[in-house]
Amino acid sequence: MRNEQPETLPEPFAHDDVSYPPGLVRAFLSEYTHPGDLVFDPFAGFGTTLSVAEEMGRRASGIEYDPQRCAYIRSRLRHPEALLQGDARLLSTYALPRIDFTLTSPPYMHRDDPEDPLAAYQEPGRGYDAYLSGLQEIYRHIGLLMNETAVAVIEVSNLKKPGGVTPLAWDIAQAISQILPFQGEVVVHWEPTYGYGYDHSYCLLFTRP
């Protein structure tokens, strides 16, 4: 799949543009949703999932931790109230609608990263295992919101740096499969590529418990 973004992100986000392209969202929404369905993104990032959902006649709902990103996403949406500025780990405390489909790319973590990805890298982390446990709890609550035929897709890569490889995609698959039934993966090959871990990614598919 072409790894192309139709819009250039404004400062101060331009250096962070490693989000998946709209084409990926369109492909999954065409396969798994219908007009009027509710599409949810617990890590809204730059709003790609939500903006494409609106473009395709779906309803959008999401959460974003970072207030600057939240303001940017809301500026892109026809229904900015669909996005909450908050912490996905507190998902159970928010009044959220039932979900027909969810697609996200969670904030990535190497095994030895000191920051907490689930707090937008703005706070010290409690380690890799705590990060995976946090994702488990988020998806435990998402499972309670999923309609009977809903599908959850998590787009993620394994990571490599001089200290070694973090099998992030496989670790997330194992962690979330303890909460939601794992239905396999779609491997996406990206062109152009950012290098190892970004030349391809795994779209992990889960269904309601």
UniProtKB/TrEMBL annotation:
SUPFAM superfamilies tied to this protein: S-adenosyl-L-methionine-dependent methyltransferases
Question: For the DNA methylase N-4/N-6 domain, which residue ranges apply?
Answer: 18-73
**A molecular function GO annotation:** DNA binding
- InterPro entries tied to this protein: DNA_methylase_N4/N6, RM_Methyltransferase, SAM-dependent_MTases_sf
| Pfam families noted in UniProt | N6_N4_Mtase
User: Which of UniProt's keywords are assigned here?
Assistant: Methyltransferase, Transferase
Q: Which GO terms describe its biological process?
A: methylation
EC? Answer: 2.1.1.-
Give the protein family: Belongs to the N(4)/N(6)-methyltransferase family.
What name goes with this protein? Answer: Methyltransferase
What high-level taxonomic lineage is stated for the organism? Answer: Bacteria, Bacillati, Chloroflexota, Ktedonobacteria, Ktedonobacterales
